[in-house]
Amino acid sequence: MAHIEIRDVSLVYDTPAGRVTGVDKASLSIEQSEFLCIVGPSGCGKSTLLNIIAGFLPPTDGEIRIAGKAVSGYGQDRGVVFQDFAQLFPWRTALGNVAFGLEMKGIGKDERESTARKQLALVKLEKFADAYPHHLSGGMQQRVAIARALAYNPAVLLMDEPFAALDALTRDDMQRLLADVWRETRKTVIYVTHNVAEAVYLADRVVVMTPHPGRVKTMVPITLPRPRDPLSVEFLDHQKQLLRELGQETH
Ligand SMILES: Nc1ncnc2c1ncn2[C@@H]1O[C@H](COP(=O)(O)OP(=O)(O)O)[C@@H](O)[C@H]1O
Ligand SMILES: [Mg+2]
Predict the structure, then answer these.
(1) 31-54 tens-digit pLDDT
(2) What is the pTM of this model?
(3) Is the shortest distance between the CB of 228 and ligand 1 below 6 Å?
(4) Is the beta carbon of 42 within 6 A of some atom in ligand 1?
């Protein structure tokens, strides 16, 4: 049995201007410990699909099962990281942010702090435990968000363009760090991006979606050995293949 089963999931937004399809009959299965990227043009429904998997939006149709259990709302088996730096609580330190989910779970202060410190170490921020978000760079804030999502040890990590707002150099660092975190934690990851190089760097498989209304177009396996070299011929070939699937011609 696959870890995550997405079966014919559709969502229609009801807006004052009429009905808008968010995602159209998406079907996918994701294996345990797999790193799956979803790529597609802006507005195709990537965030909608991720929010449905997270349990933040109920689908209009279809079903999602995680470890055999139907998803009906948010649960702590899923950690979520968004693009927006503002996802952290500004009034809490880095440590306080990471400890948040553990607090909700009713875990005592000492255990909470030691777990949160371990997670901060995993994202190489152990020295910044007492810093507030506004004193941290964008990349550091996203690392705190990753540590927070991992703190209560969810089986699944859901990420929606977490590095899209970072400059290119920081983004490269973050991708390397995330690849390391994934290797160490072996979470099942669903990672949304519109950046094909990012998908080739990170993914075991890449789902390509059609333009709006988003459907699953193809699935491209990336079998390159890790760590991957973004300048290798094989890497660039995969990148070109994805761009072709997206209908973006390359020269
Ligand atoms: N809250 C909403 N209300 C109405 N329409 C929405 C809402 N969120 C997204 N949409 C529409 O659903 C489609 C998919 O959006 P989204 O999932 O955000 O795409 P992506 O993340 O791939 O850019 C788009 O046409 C978008 O305009
Ligand atoms: Mg989006």
Answers:
(1) 999 999 999 999 999 999 999 999
(2) 0.96
(3) no
(4) yes
